[in-house]
């Protein structure tokens, strides 16, 4: 029978709902899944993503030197991890809709710990790339599940606010990632930075084993049937609201990847910044991201979703124009790079909570699959950017400038045009 939940936009198809309770968010008020405990756990899970990238960024030049490879090949350790991270979510999503969030989390985190140990002991660039791919595939389970859990337990509007709190926690973890990675690389070597990932993921696995309880109200028993998987992917992927919000999330994530993949070489090689100083520079950018998530919560409360995204789009575009203007004016200063990137990271903190939850909000009965497909779109844009950067890396800052300008223009147009025309539900209540 159809679920009959006309409040859900759009209504659930008859085959999607196993039980009506699958589309009713249940508030986190009691037991181990209390709000604070859940936000803490989800922050740890989401925090694995910046740890997987930021922690070893200060060590990438040293990694390149040890293996005797150019910058473009060293960047494969980042782009290969992101490719596996994105593709794996297409399987993790249906698995979590079929078997539940907890089993997927446990298997994914266990695999991440093992892959992190493999990264630490890699004897060549090829083995390191392979281990990073395994690490990325396991990371997909943690991040996808965290997004799905928020949708399991909250309505779309409240979910965006909760996601901003979770991403605040992610930002705080990111603030520590680069300085710790820079310190470990400076005192020891790049392997120590990757070993820290094994330690953190093992601790996160212990917390999940101890505290996490299942949040999926009803399992979709046919979620893994090939025909049903394709049908669900198409239903989600062609939905106007999913397309609009995923476009914003993907452009913002590609801009983030552009600076992650290039900033260490620009600042360390071109401006002679030390690894430790670069780590603290990355920390300042993560702090700006945290401030952006806080402003996102205030914006959602005071002016609503659309105006919050409009402001974020303006800040992103302004950051890229400032970066390009200073570069072409030949301003030779570290601050000519750091200040625009800090502004971009502030806007990134505004866009991500809104766009991630906006993309999966219409699909409460298949939140895992929707979160996975959204994550795949975000990662695909970053991976394609990584391929382009690998061809353009020539020892100057121009690829960073060009990449940031392109993606911030896409981001602003997505926020101002696509979300306004396609992304808003028929009747969104005014903010209180």
What is the architecture at the second tier of CATH? Answer: Up-down Bundle
Number of helices: 15
How much of the polypeptide forms β-strand, as a percent range? under 5%
The overall number of domains is 1
Tally of extended strands? 0
N-to-C SSE string, H for helix and E for strand: HHHHHHHHHHHHHHH
* CATH topology (level 3) name: Growth Hormone, Chain: A
Distance between the termini: 36 Å
Helix proportion range: over 70%
Could you give a short account of the major beta sheet?
Answer: none
Characterize the structure shown.
The protein is an all-alpha fold and 432 residues long. It has a single domain (33-211, 237-423), classed as Up-down Bundle (Growth Hormone, Chain: A), CATH 1.20.1250. Helices cover 77% and strands 0% of the residues. It has helices at 35-54, 60-67, 71-74, 76-99, 101-120, 125-153, 156-187, 190-211, 226-237, 240-270, 275-302, 305-328, 335-360, 367-392, 398-423. It is globular, with a radius of gyration of 21 Å. The two termini are 36 Å apart.
Question: What tags apply to this protein structure?
Answer:
432 residues, mainly alpha, Growth Hormone, Chain: A, 15 helices, globular, disordered C terminus
Write a concise synopsis of the structure shown.
The chain is an all-alpha fold and 432 residues long.
């Amino acid at each position: 029978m159809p679920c009959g939940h006309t409040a859900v936009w759009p209504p659930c198809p008859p085959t999607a709902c196993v039980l009506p309770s699958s589309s009713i968010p249940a508030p986190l008020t009691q037991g181990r899944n209390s709000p604070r405990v859940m936000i803490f756990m989800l922050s740890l899970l989401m925090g694995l993503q910046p740890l997987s990238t930021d922690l070893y960024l200060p060590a990438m030049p040293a990694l390149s030197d040890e293996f005797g490879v150019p910058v473009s090949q060293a960047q494969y350790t980042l782009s290969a991890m992101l490719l596996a991270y994105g593709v794996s979510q297409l399987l993790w999503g249906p698995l979590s809709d079929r078997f539940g969030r907890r089993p997927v989390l446990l298997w994914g985190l266990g695999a991440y710990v093992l892959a992190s140990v493999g990264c630490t002991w890699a004897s060549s660039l090829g083995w390191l790339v392979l281990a990073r791919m395994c690490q990325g595939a396991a990371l997909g389970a943690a991040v996808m599940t965290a997004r799905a859990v928020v949708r399991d337990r909250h309505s779309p509007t409240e979910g965006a606010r909760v996601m901003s709190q979770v991403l605040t926690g992610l930002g705080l973890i990111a603030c520590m990632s680069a300085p710790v990675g820079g310190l470990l690389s400076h005192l020891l070597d790049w392997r120590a930075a990757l070993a820290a990932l094994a330690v953190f993921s093992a601790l996160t696995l212990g917390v999940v084993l101890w505290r996490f309880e299942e949040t999926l109200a009803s399992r979709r028993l046919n979620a893994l049937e090939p025909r049903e998987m394709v049908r669900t992917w198409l239903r989600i992927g062609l939905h106007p609201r999913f397309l609009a919000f995923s476009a914003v999330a993907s452009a913002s994530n590609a801009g983030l990847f552009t600076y992650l993949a290039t900033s260490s070489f620009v600042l360390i090689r071109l401006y002679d910044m030390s690894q430790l100083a670069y780590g603290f520079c990355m920390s300042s950018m993560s702090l700006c991201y945290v401030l952006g998530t806080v402003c996102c919560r205030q914006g959602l409360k005071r002016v609503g979703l659309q105006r919050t995204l409009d402001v974020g789009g303006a800040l992103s575009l302004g950051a890229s124009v400032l970066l390009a203007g200073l570069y072409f004016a030949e301003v030779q200063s570290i601050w000519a790079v750091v200040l625009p990137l800090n502004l971009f990271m502030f806007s990134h903190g505004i866009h991500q909570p809104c766009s991630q939850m906006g993309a999966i909000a219409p699909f409460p009965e298949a939140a895992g699959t929707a979160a996975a497909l959204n994550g795949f779109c975000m990662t695909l844009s970053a991976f394609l950017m990584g391929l382009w950067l690998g061809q353009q890396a020539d020892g100057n800052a121009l690829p960073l400038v060009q990449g940031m300008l392109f993606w911030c223009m896409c981001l602003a147009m997505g926020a101002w045009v696509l979300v306004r025309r396609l992304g808003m539900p028929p009747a969104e209540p005014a903010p209180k």
